[in-house]
Specification:
Number of helices: 6
Oligomer: single chain
Order of helices and strands: HEHHEEHHH
Strand order of the largest sheet: 1-3-2
Distance between the termini: 37 Å
Radius of gyration: 18 Å
Number of strands: 3
Helix content: 55-70%
Largest sheet: 3 strands, antiparallel
Strand content: 5-15%
């Protein structure tokens, strides 16, 4: 798998890394169970901050594209191909856009929406 990061691109570096790994999985260039380089190794190979790579790996793991098996390493998840086709950020943006539009049509101001959103996020319990 060849990863190329463009530091001049408007897209954040971690997002470029995520997109390239998902694209490689969908294209079949990386098979389920294949190992990935460690965070530190990939950061060194790409001349990136290791925290940037860690963020990308964390989000890929959240989306079940990769899985970390402790000291054994990081591997492509068995359901990575299907999970790579889901864009959680796009889903969240779409749902928020619909909610904000509905609230605006009801007469709520942007300030009221922001305050309510902040309050909900502060009191949110999982």
């Amino acid at each position: 798998m060849q990863i190329t990061i463009d530091i001049d691109a408007p897209e954040p570096l971690f997002a470029q890394l995520i997109e390239q790994i998902k694209t490689a999985v969908i294209a079949g260039h990386i098979a389920p169970g294949a190992s990935l380089p460690s965070i530190r190794q990939l950061a060194n190979d790409l001349d990136m901050n290791h925290k940037t790579v860690a963020k990308a790996y964390r989000l890929l793991e959240r989306d079940a594209v990769i899985e970390t098996k402790g000291y054994r390493g990081t591997f492509i998840h068995s359901q990575a191909r299907a999970n790579s086709e889901i864009d959680l950020n796009a889903l969240v943006t779409e749902k928020l856009q619909k909610t904000v539009t509905s609230l605006r049509h009801s007469g709520a101001t942007d300030s009221e929406i922001r305050i309510a959103f902040t309050d909900v996020m502060k009191t949110r319990k999982d």
